[in-house]
Task: inverse folding
């Protein structure tokens, strides 16, 4: 480890302001971002450089020893984890647009939200990289070169965690346990059968969602009525993640689940949801930085050939 820290904790100028530490490609961060925009709460977003292990840096471990995103900060108050953050926003910003389901809400919808929140999205994401035959046409940023790089980095996560555990003794125990958990998860995910079982669980959850959407009727905008709720945030972000992974054809596209297909289009046209998406420039930068040099050479050669062909055609 380096003597000088690569990352330094950003200064929070105003103790009353909200700061969200997140990563633009995290499913769990996207949920919180969508809720903040829906509730029209002012906040400052700090992008954590996950690709270079900023979430394993000492300053971030002081915020969340589990090294997980997102984390919300208000002065000395630290709230880690998307579900805890969403609960905090509902309890502490009651004058803003409410998103929480009421206590007398449809039991099936409440159960649907619980099922959605239990899905291991990170495991499903990595599984789709390890078993590419299960996906069709992944979208940016999860294109082939980037998936290759993520898989390479994932192979060394346990070793890096153990190195950080030695470097930061105060967090040794939690990082060692995290490394052990990653080893077990990686071993399970090498089995395509295990991954397919996970997809079957997702399929059952989405089948319940399709049933509820069908009950809502054509005039109802969101799954529990006219207003968006936390169940829409969980479901909408899940559908988007499955879409960019290239799994939409398995679960709803092509008329397989017509109500869900309409619902997904509704999510994608939501202005507040659009605020959670990375810009095209950011996507291109991420793809380029995470593309192995061998791929970059091919891209450069292709671009040069295209330029030559294009100029020749123009001369004609």
Result:
């Amino acid at each position: 480890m380096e003597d000088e820290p690569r990352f330094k904790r950003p200064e929070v100028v105003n103790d009353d302001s909200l700061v969200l530490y997140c990563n633009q490609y995290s499913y769990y961060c996207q949920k919180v971002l969508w809720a903040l925009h829906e509730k029209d709460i002012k906040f400052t977003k700090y992008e954590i450089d996950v690709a270079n292990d900023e979430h394993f840096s000492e300053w971030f471990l002081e915020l969340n020893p589990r090294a997980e995103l997102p984390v919300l900060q208000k002065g000395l108050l630290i709230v880690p984890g998307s579900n805890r953050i969403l609960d905090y926003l509902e309890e502490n910003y009651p004058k803003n647009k409410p998103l929480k389901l009421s206590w007398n809400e449809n039991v099936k919808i409440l159960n649907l939200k619980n099922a959605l929140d239990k899905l291991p999205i990170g495991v499903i994401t990595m599984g789709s990289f390890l078993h590419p035959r299960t996906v069709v046409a992944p979208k940016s940023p999860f294109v082939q070169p980037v998936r290759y790089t993520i898989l390479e980095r994932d192979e060394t996560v346990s070793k890096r965690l153990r190195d950080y555990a030695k470097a930061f003794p105060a967090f040794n125990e939690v990082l060692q346990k995290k490394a052990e958990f990653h080893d077990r998860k990686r071993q399970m995910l090498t089995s395509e059968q295990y991954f397919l079982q996970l997809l079957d669980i997702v399929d059952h959850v989405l089948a319940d969602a399709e049933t509820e959407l069908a009950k809502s009727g054509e005039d109802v905008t969101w799954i529990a009525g006219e207003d968006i709720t936390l169940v829409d945030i969980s479901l909408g972000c899940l559908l988007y993640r499955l879409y960019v992974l290239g799994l939409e054809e398995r679960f709803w596209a092509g008329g397989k689940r017509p109500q869900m297909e309409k619902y997904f289009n509704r999510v994608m046209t939501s202005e507040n949801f659009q605020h959670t998406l990375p810009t095209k420039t950011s996507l291109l930068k991420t793809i380029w930085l995470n593309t192995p040099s061998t791929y970059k050479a091919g891209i450069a050669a292709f671009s040069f050939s295209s330029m030559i062909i294009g100029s020749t055609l123009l001369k004609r």
Residues 192-216 form the longest helix (25 residues). The chain has 15 helices and four strands. Residues 301-316 have pLDDT under 50 and may be disordered. The beta strands are 18-22, 44-47, 71-74, 77-80.
